[in-house]
Amino acid sequence: MIHFYIRTIILTIVIQIISTGPTITPTIKQQQQQSCNMIKADKCASDVFVFGHSNITLPENLQQVETHCKSRFQALRCVQSYIRDCLTLFPKQVVSLLIKGAANNAKQQCKIDRQEFVERSKCYRKNREGLGQCMKKLINELSQAEKQSDKVPLTCCVLKSYRDCSIKILQSDSEQCKPDDTKYFMKMVEGNAADVFELVCRNNRKIERPKDAKGDTICLPQERQAKSIDNEKGSLSLLPSYIKIFTE
């Protein structure tokens, strides 16, 4: 009810702005339409949320950090432009929380602690494929969660499951990944969605979910898990599902 009330107020304000504001020229409209390309924004977002994508290699030296960070900040600007130009006020506020964590991660690793980033990345590179499977599962399950009536509780479960999956991968490699390395990368994972998770999942943390034979939480029933395979050629990042789950 509160959510509906907030959206109603926001919609009223937007209508007033549109009705009283200046006329947008066709050129500006065309520019906005060109920038509002979800496929492009999705690709940019996959380059922003670098941790967990098996096709992204983290830098091995400071020279590679320069190239990596240039690409990463360019992708970040791309996503921020999409949020600014293509989303209405309420979606913009929610999705901005997601990008805030990724932006903070990029700033920390690219401008403050570059040398530590290089050293810690040894652990990541060794386990890139396993972590990539965790991310792939997360994106697939979010694409199914967005279609369900209980999408927010499901999303909270899926996010926690992804976190547990990543921790298990890192902790299983005690040779390359020291405890401090695991903490470093888990901070990176949680930073990507911490604000959103805290905002929407605080009331869903105690919901009990069944476990599989390995003790992993089952968020989606089997028939929904099977459907998630259909997303193999779908979203590249969390962005499309986040927009649908938290703003529709």
Features:
single chain, 11 helices
What do you see in this structure?
The chain starts with a helix and ends with a helix. The protein has one domain. It is mainly α and 248 residues long. 73% of the residues lie in helices and 0% in strands. The chain has 11 helices and no strands.
Brief digest:
By secondary structure, this protein is mostly helical.
DSSP strand (E) fraction? under 5%
Give the overall form: globular
Helix tally equals: 11
Q: Could you report the average pLDDT, rounded to the nearest whole number? A: 77
Low-confidence stretches: 1-31
Largest sheet: none
Helix content: over 70%
What's the gyration radius in Å?
A: 19 Å
Number of strands: 0
Number of domains: 1
Class per helix and strand makeup: mainly alpha
What distance separates the N and C termini?
14 Å
Give the arrangement of secondary structure elements.
Elements: H1 2-20, H2 26-35, H3 38-48, H4 62-86, H5 89-112, H6 114-126, H7 128-145, H8 151-171, H9 179-201, H10 222-228, H11 239-247
Helix pairs in contact: 3-4, 4-5, 5-6, 5-9, 5-11, 6-9, 7-8, 7-10, 7-11, 8-9
